[in-house]
Amino acid sequence: MKPVIDVSNLYKTIDDFELGPFNLSIEPGLVTAIVGNNGAGKSTLLKMLMNLVKPNQGDIRLLERNISEDESWKQHVAYLPQRLLGYDPFNGHQLKEIISNLYPNWDESRFNKMVDMFNVNLSKKYGKMSQGMQQKLALALMLPRNPDIMILDEPTSHMDIPSKYLLMDILVEWMEEGHRTLILASHQTEEIRKLADTIAIIRDGDIIGHYEKDELSRYFTQYWLADSLPHKTLPGEVKRKGERIVITNQERELEAYLKRHQLKWSQKEHIDLNDAISLMLI
Amino acid sequence: MELPIKISQQSREPIYHQIENQIKALIASGQLQTGTSLPSIRALSKDLEVSVITTRRAYQNLEYQGFIQTLQGKGTFVADLNPSIKQEIKQDSVSRALSEAIETAYQHNYSKQQIKKLFLSLLDT
Description:
CATH class of the largest domain in chain A: Alpha Beta
CATH class of the largest domain in chain B: Mainly Alpha
Domain HTH gntR-type (chain B): 13-81
Distance between the termini of chain B: 36 Å
Number of domains of chain A: 2
GO molecular function, one term (chain B): DNA binding
Number of helices of chain A: 9
Largest interface: A-B, 22 and 14 residues
Strand content of chain B: 5-15%
Pfam families (chain B): GntR (PF00392)
Radius of gyration of chain A: 22 Å
InterPro entries (chain B): Tscrpt_reg_HTH_GntR, WH-like_DNA-bd_sf, WH_DNA-bd_sf
Strand order of the largest sheet of chain A: 6-7-8-3-9-10
Keywords (chain B): DNA-binding, Transcription, Transcription regulation
Oligomer: heterodimer
Structural class of chain B: mainly alpha
């Protein structure tokens, strides 16, 4: 299938911070999580996808069109940044009026449903709402636009736990309705585990990998050895814990090595997704 | 609807295969009756915390083998299965469980005789 977003050789410098050069391809119908440590460049990447930040070099194709050529693609994409500028002086009713008028496919019943589920008080000014409530309203103003692609930058960072679960159900439903694509920058492990199909990992300005989630869940294996580990670094070794535990990303090579050196192991276990991501970001 | 499926990341069996076999077992044992609606690929993926790529593969295999049926715009349903296939699946899931037990016993250095003895004594309790 043709990618809905195709990033090639993208490179950007901001002061002394370098982002890229990187390549990323996003398939339709999937949820892609962008994860990384703080300041890794996730938000900058998303802004570049929206043509809000210009790269120094490289190309971004969105729905097979170069985003810098014309802006017709914008009606197919909804982007939720971490901070919405200009919303503060308006209340929920006013914001809905402004935004719904900009989108011909606006789905009023979905907006009402989300406002209801999240218990948003539309008479309150956006600037006076708690950060969690602002995120709820912002999402309720996002999904009813019925975009093909939705890009959410840490959409639930301030939301309470039940609301996060509610949103996951809403997003599942939204994904089911058509050939939709969701890009989610997130630090929320639950969201990544339950929603993501692929995970792109960004560390210090570089995409160090883009994996199918289930591949990442089995990427690292931890071995418990019967005796102390040798001093030499073992095949695929990424970490040791104490004297007898080693984590590798090359199961077969490690097992062959252990066999050759007559080192016995008593147990092995795949490292779960959260720990695997942490190992990659260290 | 949530399905009572348990995925093991530790098993050597690929995840799509685990989903496939467990749905087959649920159908064979009658827990999922003909015509029962199955969760969507996206919803099941969320419950099992796997990617839709994996779940889609399991559903495609099940559909190809005639266990489930997808009706455009309506969803996925348990198909009408021949009783002899159900019988086959039942036997298959039981022998799979027993084979795993045997493998565990061998890993603990049990002899064939010891396994037989243990099995029979467990059967009588």
